[in-house]
Every structure is written in structure tokens, then in C-alpha cells.
């Protein structure tokens, strides 16, 4: 036991282990034969794994013996060296320490020692931390600039980009001062310069943008910077500097490898567009032909047709059209989205993908292709053959043998519309009648157009027949319902017309023509509040429609609210400030309110724009007479005599104005002239007698004799007492007798000042196969001044599609 070393008193690792069972006394081991045999064998010479038994698992005293060296001469890890006992550190993580004694508290997490010391603060004054902080700020500013651009605040985006540039330069200086000049972040510098150039371009600051792009392009350290020459070319294109745009597009094309085929195709397309702007169609054709041979697309095919059309090459136009309709779109068949079985899971998948973004993109691409094809066909049809009809027939036959078979019928309807454009209504009707045996959609469109044509020709029976045919083919066609309602409207069955208009609105809630005509129907039925509601809804859709605002003004006038009527008419004037009928109506309303000065202003403006309105002329003449400026009234009544030379009252008013202003000689001459034209006019003879008497002329007796003869003749003819044939304001010498009434008569000749009693206001409709929303023009070639809303509005051309 002389080699057994005990731990010191103050660091007793195995306190309490001296109390052991005598059975395990080692003193008897020297006399133990089995133990001695084991020591002498190889088992006894094995180096133990540790010098001491882990007595924590058993309550016995550990055995100690002389350590043996291993076969490699390595000392035992647990051997006692230099007389120091090894502390038991392997169990500290479990909560055991050398200081633990019996009855001590188990505290494996060391909670009894109090809170942990605070973490050491990072020193931000070091150069590395300053560089990292600046880099983060620059990245944040670039991100904020991009976000501002996406939200449309371009000025803020530019300011953020400039600030990012300043921070990046400060970052470069910081690196150089700290000795890290070789660690410059080129990607960050590239991002800052590119974002700054883009923001300059977005704010139309083209010189600054070009300078920024030039800095990037000239720096050889930036990889693939040559692509930015495309951006520079785009700027030159916006500046209409087409030669430089071509130059930079070609430089960019030279620096892009053939591996980037899509990019090269787009640049070639831009080059072709620039050549078109320059009028160099042959060079543009070269670019477009190369694209159509490498990677055809509908936009390039359409541009190629335009170029051939510009240089009038018929056969090439046909070839280009055939190339256009053969461009593959890469779109799945629509039958893919139709459920074909009772499998619930597959049907759910079909419903999910039926209206997803990918399918919407496919529909948009197909609609764009159809638009280009229809436009190209309508463009080249009159040019590729001797007549446009033959050209249309060639295009129709070509389409029927392509993937766009359904466009052939639409193109034939466009052929009929072209006939309408050329005022050849008979051919248009004949063309549309060929669709009566086609499928329901085409048949409904053709019947709708036929109904519209017959409505324009005022053949309302045929219009009604084809409207019924269109409704039978497609009951959900709002244009057919509008035409049917219009044919009923002209028969004054307003209730039934309103029902058709409401059905059209149920099928298409955005159909403005149906809403307008429904408002007219309610107004005819004297349901003014419902009509007002219709036109207010329509005004919310068509904010700048002068006709809608005019109807609202009329309704408020009928509802006896002149102030609201004036407000709406003022909005009409803000849209069409030169409309004479609106100005005259404003004058009438102000006159009714007693505001003569404002009434005179608007009547005078109306006369300035349209000096042939008799009612306006009459009001202005009466105004000057009432204000005792008779000489100013003469010019208006003289104009009235030119407009209505057979009306004697205007010439009498001219003579009366001369007499009132004291020019008796001129008045006498005017009365004599009137007498020569109208020898039986009693009023003229009476004033001649009076003037000749006052002036002491000898002709007084002759005129008196003529007056008696004329009066006697009238008595014989009438068989009644003497009745004056002219208004009382021209009789006698009373001043008030010659004056016109202070209140002007109703502005239009009819009792409806805003709309004609004829059906010209109704919206008749036709189907334009180019788009979902068709134009539905007003009927009638041109509105008349006397009985319609707007005198200068041309309406006939509206029936043609754009």
C-alpha cells in the first residue's frame, strides 16, 4: 500500500470512501493464488483504462496498484505524477465538483452563483465594422430606390439612388484609408451605378443616364457591361436620334454571344423598328426576315407585313401573311380545360387551372395574335388584288386552311363593314345575309349588323325582323337586344323598349348604350327620377360625355331645379365650350332666373359660334330694344331677314329700329322697300302713312288710298271685322306696342328643348368582331340644329370600327 496516494485534505475527491466492506481487504491479496496467477499472465500486464476505479457507481473502496506501461511505452493517463493527484473533471458537467460534500445542494446549472456576466460589447470603431456598416447602408438605399420606382415615386427613387452613390464613394475611401483597397466590392459598385443610370432614364434625364451608362461600359472590370449599350440605344431611340440608336444596338449585338439567342432576337427586332422609323423599309425587312427564319413571332410577322405594304409588294405581302398565320403559339387546346370524366380529383384540378395566371397569359397571347392577324388582313386585302372584295376572299380562304379557322367568319363580317365604310349598303346587306345559315355566334353578329343598317335606312320593319333573328341566335347578345328595343322605341312603345334595355343590362352591366336608351325611355314615360338615376350611373362611367350631362341638365329643368340644370350645363361647356345650343340654353335658364346680364353673355356667345339661330337672334334684338340701344338691334334683325327673307316681320323690325333711333329717312326707305315686296301688308302701309304725314310728304295720300283698299279687300276675304295680320307690337305709335316680349319664347320650335322627337337620339348597335365591346353609333348622318342636341356632331362615321 506504499504506492497508494491520497488526495489532500482540502481537495478530498473521495471523502467517505474509507468506510468499506472488509471482504474487499487488499492485504490478503498476496496470499490469493488466483489473483497472483492473473498478475503473472498477460491479462495482468494489460494497462488499465484508468488508475482508479470509478467508485461513484459502487460504494466500495477503490484498489490501487503499481501502474504498468503499455506496449508502446505510453504512460497511463490516470497515473500519479510528481506526487499530485489528478482532479476528477470529467463529471463537472453533471454537477459534481471536488468541493461537494455530503448534504450539499445539487445545482448543475450554477444558478446559485447569480446572473451571468454581460456580453462584451462589439467595438464599432474598428475599420472592419465601419466598412460592413457602410455596405449595409448602400444595399438598403438601393433596395429603397427600387421599391420607390415600383410604386411610381420616381423622384424619390432618384434621390435614393444618388444617396447610394454618395455612400458607395465614402465606402471606397474608407477601404483605402484602412488599407483594404484590394478588397473593393465591384458588384456593389456596379449595382449602384446601374440603379442610378436607370433612375435617371426613368426621370427623362437622358444626358445624365447616358453618362452613368458610359461609366459602366468603359470600365473593363465589369463583366458583360456591353449589354448596357442596349439601354443606351433605347435612350437614343426616345430622343429620336435613330442613327446612334442603330449604332449602339449593333455594338450590343456584337458583344452578345450566340448562346443568348433570345436577347439577340430582341435586339434585331429593335433594329428593325428603328429602320421603320427612319423609313428604310428594305433594311427593316432584312432584320424581320432573319427573325422569322430563326425564331418567328406574331409581332415580327406583323411588322414584316407593314414593311411590304409600305413598299407595295403584293406577292411578298401574301407570303408574309402566310408566315404570320403559321407562327406557333405554343398554347394548349382549350379542350384541355373541359372536364371529360366523373373523376372528382381531376375535375378539381381542371377547375383550379381554368382561370389561373398561366391560362390567362395563354388567352392574352391568343387574343393578341388574332388582333394582329385581323388587322393585317384588313390592311392588305384592298392591296393584294385588284378589288378589296377579291383580297378579302383570298385572306378568308387562307385563314380557313390555318389554325385560325374561326377568324374567317369575322373577316367576312369585316368585309361587310368595309362595304358600309364605302357607302355600299346593298353589298353590305348581301354579304351579311350569307351568314343566316352559319353557326349561332356568327349568325347573331351578322343579323345585328343588318338590323343596324336597316335602322339607319329607317326601314324599321326589316330592322325589327333581323333584331329578332339576332336574339333567336344569341339571346345574350346585348347589341341585338338594344336594336330590338330601339325598333320598339320608334313605335312609341316605351315600356316594352325599357324591358329590352334592362335585359341587355342584365347580360352586360357595362353596356352604356342600353343604359342611355333606358334613361330616354323613362323620360318619355315621365318617370323622371328613374331616368335621372340612369343618367347619373352613366355619368359615373362616362365622366366626360357631353350628351349624358346635357340629359341630366334637361331632367333637372323638368324637375324644376334650374340651378342644378345650370350646373350641369356648365360642365357641358367645360367639355365642349363652343357648342351654340348649350350656350343658348344657358342663356334661356339665366333669363328665366332674371339674370339678364348672364343671359346676354351666353346668348351672345351662342350667336358668335352659330349666327343662324333665329331664336337667339330674336332674343338679342329684343334685348337691345329693351335697353334702348335700337341701332345695335338692327344688325341682328337684318341677319334674320337674310335667313328668312319671306318673313315680313324681320324687315318691319329693321324699319322700326331705324324709326326709334331717329333715322326717319332710312326708316321711310325701308318701309317703301317692304311695300314693294309685300304690297298687301297693312302694318307697312300704316307706318308709311304715319311717316309721310309727320314728314309732310306728298305720297301720304297715295299710301292712305292703298291702305283703305287693302283693308277693304281683307274684310271681303275674311267676311269679318278688320283684323290685323301682324303682331300688335307693330301697330300704332305706342312705344311698348313695338317692343318684343321681355321673355323669350321657348328656344326650340318643339316643346322638348334637349332632344328631338325623332328616334335620332337612340343608340343602334352592331357587332364588331375585333373586340368584346362594340361601338354603337347614334343613327342619322348629321344632327340638325333645330331639333337635336348638338349641332356640330358628326355621327355617321361612328358605325365603322377602329
From TrEMBL:
Record's compositionally biased regions (Acidic residues): 787-802
Keywords: TPR repeat
Residue ranges with Basic and acidic residues bias: 775-786
Pfam families in UniProt: TPR_12, TPR_16, TPR_6
Molecular function via GO: kinesin binding
GO biological process, one term: non-motile cilium assembly
Gene3D superfamilies recorded: Tetratricopeptide repeat domain (1.25.40.10)
Signal peptide stretch: none
TPR repeats: 226-259, 265-298, 478-511, 512-545, 546-579, 580-613, 614-647
Region of interest called Disordered, as start-end residue ranges on this chain: 99-129, 727-802
Superkingdom, taxonomy of origin: Eukaryota
Cellular component aspect of the GO annotation: centriole; ciliary basal body; ciliary base; non-motile cilium
Protein name: Intraflagellar transport 88 homolog
Gene name per UniProt: IFT88
Amino acid at each position: 500500500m506504499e504506492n497508494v496516494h491520497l488526495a489532500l485534505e482540502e481537495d478530498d475527491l473521495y471523502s467517505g470512501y474509507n468506510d468499506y466492506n472488509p471482504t474487499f481487504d487488499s492485504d490478503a491479496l498476496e496470499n490469493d493464488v488466483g489473483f497472483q496467477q492473473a498478475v503473472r499472465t498477460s491479462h495482468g500486464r494489460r494497462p488499465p483504462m484508468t488508475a482508479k476505479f470509478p467508485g461513484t457507481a459502487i460504494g466500495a473502496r477503490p484498489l490501487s496498484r503499481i501502474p504498468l506501461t503499455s506496449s508502446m511505452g505510453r504512460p497511463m493517463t490516470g497515473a500519479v505524477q510528481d506526487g499530485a493527484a489528478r482532479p476528477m473533471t470529467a463529471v463537472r458537467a453533471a454537477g459534481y465538483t471536488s468541493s461537494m460534500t455530503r448534504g450539499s445542494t445539487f445545482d448543475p446549472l450554477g444558478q446559485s452563483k447569480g446572473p451571468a456576466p454581460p456580453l462584451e460589447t462589439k467595438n464599432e470603431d474598428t475599420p472592419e465594422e465601419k466598412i460592413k456598416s457602410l455596405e449595409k447602408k448602400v444595399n438598403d438605399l438601393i433596395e429603397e430606390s427600387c421599391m420607390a420606382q415600383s410604386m411610381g415615386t420616381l423622384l424619390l427613387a432618384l434621390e435614393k439612388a444618388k444617396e447610394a452613390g454618395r455612400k458607395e464613394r465614402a465606402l471606397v475611401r474608407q477601404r483605402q484609408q484602412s488599407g483594404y483597397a484590394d478588397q473593393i466590392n465591384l458588384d456593389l459598385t456596379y449595382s449602384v451605378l446601374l440603379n442610378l443610370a436607370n433612375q435617371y432614364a426613368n426621370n427623362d434625364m437622358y444626358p445624365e443616364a447616358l453618362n452613368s451608362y458610359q461609366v459602366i461600359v468603359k470600365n473593363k472590370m465589369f463583366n458583360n457591361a456591353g449589354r448596357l449599350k442596349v439601354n443606351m440605344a433605347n435612350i437614343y431611340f426616345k430622343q429620336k436620334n435613330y442613327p446612334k440608336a442603330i449604332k449602339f444596338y449593333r455594338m450590343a449585338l456584337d458583344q452578345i454571344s450566340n448562346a443568348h439567342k433570345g436577347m439577340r432576337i430582341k435586339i434585331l427586332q429593335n433594329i428593325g423598328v428603328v429602320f421603320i422609323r427612319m423609313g428604310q423599309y428594305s433594311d427593316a425587312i432584312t432584320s424581320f426576315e432573319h427573325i422569322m427564319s430563326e425564331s418567328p413571332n406574331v409581332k415580327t410577322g406583323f411588322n414584316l407585313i407593314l414593311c411590304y405594304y409600305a413598299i407595295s409588294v403584293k406577292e411578298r405581302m401574301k407570303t408574309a401573311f402566310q408566315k404570320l398565320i403559321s407562327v406557333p403559339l405554343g398554347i394548349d387546346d382549350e379542350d384541355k380545360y373541359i372536364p371529360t370524366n366523373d373523376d372528382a380529383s381531376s375535375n378539381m384540378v381542371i377547375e383550379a387551372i381554368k382561370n389561373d395566371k398561366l391560362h390567362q397569359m395563354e388567352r392574352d397571347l391568343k387574343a393578341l395574335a388574332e388582333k394582329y392577324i385581323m388587322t393585317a388582313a384588313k390592311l392588305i386585302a384592298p392591296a393584294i388584288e385588284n378589288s378589296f372584295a377579291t383580297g378579302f376572299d383570298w385572306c378568308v380562304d387562307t385563314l380557313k386552311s390555318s389554325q385560325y379557322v374561326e377568324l374567317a367568319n369575322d373577316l367576312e363580317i369585316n368585309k361587310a363593314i368595309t362595304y358600309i365604310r364605302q357607302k355600299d349598303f346593298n353589298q353590305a346587306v348581301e354579304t351579311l345575309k350569307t351568314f343566316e345559315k352559319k353557326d349561332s355566334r356568327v349568325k347573331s353578329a351578322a343579323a345585328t349588323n343588318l338590323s343596324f343598317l336597316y335602322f339607319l335606312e329607317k326601314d324599321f320593319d326589316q330592322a325589327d325582323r333581323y333584331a329578332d333573328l339576332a336574339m333567336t341566335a344569341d339571346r345574350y347578345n346585348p347589341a341585338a337586344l338594344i336594336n330590338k328595343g330601339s325598333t320598339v322605341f320608334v313605335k312609341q312603345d316605351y315600356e316594352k323598349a325599357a324591358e329590352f334595355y334592362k335585359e341587355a343590362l342584365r347580360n352586360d352591366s357595362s353596356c352604356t348604350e342600353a343604359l342611355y336608351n333606358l334613361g330616354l325611355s323613362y323620360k318619355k314615360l315621365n318617370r323622371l327620377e328613374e331616368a335621372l338615376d340612369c343618367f347619373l350611373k352613366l355619368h359615373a362611367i362616362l365622366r366626360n360625355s357631353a350628351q349624358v350631362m346635357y340629359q341630366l341638365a334637361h331632367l333637372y329643368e323638368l324637375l324644376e331645379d334650374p340651378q342644378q340644370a345650370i350646373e350641369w350645363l356648365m360642365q357641358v361647356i367645360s367639355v365642349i365650350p363652343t357648342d351654340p345650343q348649350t350656350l343658348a340654353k344657358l342663356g334661356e335658364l339665366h333669363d328665366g332666373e332674371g339674370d339678364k346680364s348672364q343671359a346676354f353673355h351666353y346668348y351672345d356667345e351662342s350667336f358668335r359660334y352659330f349666327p343662324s339661330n333665329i331664336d337667339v337672334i330674336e332674343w338679342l334684338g329684343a334685348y337691345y330694344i329693351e335697353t334702348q340701344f335700337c341701332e345695335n338691334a338692327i344688325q341682328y334683325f337684318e341677319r334674320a331677314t337674310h335667313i328668312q327673307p319671306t318673313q315680313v316681320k324681320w324687315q318691319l323690325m329693321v324699319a322700326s329700329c331705324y324709326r326709334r333711333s331717329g333715322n326717319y329717312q332710312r326708316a321711310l326707305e325701308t318701309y317703301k322697300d317692304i311695300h314693294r315686296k309685300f304690297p298687301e301688308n297693312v302694318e307697312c302701309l300704316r307706318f308709311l302713312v304715319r311717316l309721310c304725314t309727320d314728314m309732310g310728304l306728298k305720297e301720304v295720300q297715295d299710301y292712305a288710298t292703298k291702305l283703305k283698299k287693302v283693308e277693304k279687300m281683307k274684310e271681303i276675304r275674311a267676311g269679318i271685322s278688320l283684323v290685323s295680320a301682324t303682331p300688335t307690337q307693330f301697330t300704332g305709335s305706342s312705344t311698348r306696342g313695338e317692343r318684343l316680349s321681355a321673355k323669350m319664347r321657348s328656344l326650340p320650335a318643339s316643346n322638348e328643348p334637349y332632344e328631338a322627337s325623332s328616334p335620332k337620339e337612340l343608340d343602334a348597335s352592331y357587332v364588331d368582331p375585333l373586340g368584346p365591346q362594340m361601338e354603337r353609333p347614334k343613327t342619322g348622318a348629321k344632327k340638325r340644329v333645330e331639333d337635336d342636341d348638338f349641332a356640330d356632331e358628326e355621327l355617321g362615321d361612328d358605325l365603322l370600327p377602329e
